[in-house]
Amino acid sequence: MKGRNTLGLVVICALLGLYVYKFEAGAEKPDKTADRSVVQLAGFKKEADVQEITITRESDTLTLQRVAKKADAKDAKKDAKDASGEDDWKIISPLKGDADRVATSAFIKTLLSAKAVSSYTKEQAKELSDADTGLGKPRVTLLLKDAKGKTGTVQFGESTLNKDNCFAQVQGKALVLLFAQAYVDENLIKKQVGDLRDKTLLALAANDAKSIELAYPAGSMKLAKNEKGNWELAAGAKKYPADANAVDNLLASLASTKIDKFVDPAPKSPASYGLDKPRVTITVSTGAKGEFGLSLGGSITEAPAQQPQMNPNQPPPQPEEKVYVQRRGETEVVQVPGSLYAALLKTPQDLRDKTILAVNTINATKVAYTVGTSTVELEKGAPVKDKPGVWQLKKPQALTADSKKVEKLLQDLKGLQATGFVDEPGALEQYGLDKPTCTIAIEEGTTKLPLLSIGKAASDGSGTFFKRADNPVVFKANGSLVRGLETKAERLRDLQVLRLDRTEIKSIVMKAKDRDTVTLTCRGASDWVYKIEPQPVKDAKEKPKPAEEKKADFGRVSGLLTDLEDVRGDEWMADKAPDLAKYGLKEPECTLVVTLNNGSKQTLLIGRDPDSKSMAAFAKAEGKDIVVRNDDGSYLMRFARSGQEFEPAPEQPMGGMPMGMPPG
User: 351 near 238, Cβ under 8 Å?
Assistant: First the structure.
């Protein structure tokens, strides 16, 4: 019994070997034909000769046609921007439409450039029957056509025994070829028209839009450009200025959304996709270029494609919403990301202009505001040469103002956005606007902006009420602006104690308590050296160490130069302090003597707060009276430096640090 089983196995192995010899070994030695691409096998010299491609399968036929670049000036200019240099393609069947340039170009390149892995000689091919190769009734036929109508056809039959390859033959030729099965599967069998179609949802140029209509089950609204080119919103019988950024974002969402899937070319029942009663319908008019439109219906939730998890602790991807959409004038249903629905789901408040006061921060020349009984007036001086004017405090005291604080106030006003609108406010006392807690007036040269009044906070905590003198609408917005308004002169005055032009600095001498004196000297634009002068020796017999000059790290020097360009405090302390010891400035913690190219010197004194628990420090420029306070201790970190802090970083060996070596 055992002998019989063994004999059976021998017979099977022999038959298998014969099959492999017949269908595989006979093709192991490729001839010149196997080195030729599909396009050459079909009788064409190069891929550019192919003008039409037809793939015929059992279930359908897919036909693509080349759209050559046009020679007129307009199209030539457009084509010049196309870095790919490829012609476009359009789909002829099973439907007509544009093909996706990137996907189709890649597909055709792969399709036409593939080569046979091997081939059978004429003698070997005679031993193969149609039943063996499947070429009597091909599974797939690839037909290529040039501009003159010449055609070439390659037929693909069954797979070989090991499923690695597929039998193929050029129509009219006796030679039998083998192509990789993966090539046949991916490009000829599995490739669907939806893989190659243009995924553009709307071929809309956002700048061309003239009007937009949005319709929802609960109502509709319209956006349109006025004669000045500004967007206006019409909701019901009322019109409002529209938020240009919100409109731009809406149009950008329409123009950038891509189709995920082509679902149904001719649905029998739109209701099955929720399109009998759309959740949103949008129509965009571009004037002479026509109208574009979408209807958004129901949605489904799909699990995202599984991706390899690089981090086991990473949460799994969340399901994604997909929305069914019909384009204006078409019956076909497509599927798009749910983010489009979110982008189009708008209320009138979402699209209204939320700017409360249109401030031009550069043109502003006067700022006046009252908080309670306190009044502040600021005015910008005239520019001097190429330098902008300096802000001056006029009330409550004539002083140079802190320009950064003024500029921040203007930026805050410019960025103030309404979070709600009361279009018919009625009596202003209910908003605290009959007797405002604050008023703000801005002038931009000869132009006066409308007076802004600020009332009380809403009882529900949703914001503070604002009103412009030229507008009946009451706005609701964040009230932090009011809480941040300074009224005391000492909080508004300029707190700068030293300002230097870094390009004019020749040397810097830094003397800090309990540290060696460090001298930095400029030898060129980015060439600095430093010298450490040790502290005086306490023992007269001990010889002082000679000072040695070394190259400084310019990056670290540059940081110090930046700090010296604008030394200012967080808080004003005194205009002329009678007792510098109170601020640690009688015996400074750190002294910087800066010599300029013209030989003049500027000296900066840094004193530590006598309160040992405080991180604060004080600063004063020699020859100037103002004393300022720095709250976070950064004065000492920036200006009390040792020589080692200017040493160049050691060069790293090729490949980085040696294994196990910590960075210095």
Answer: no
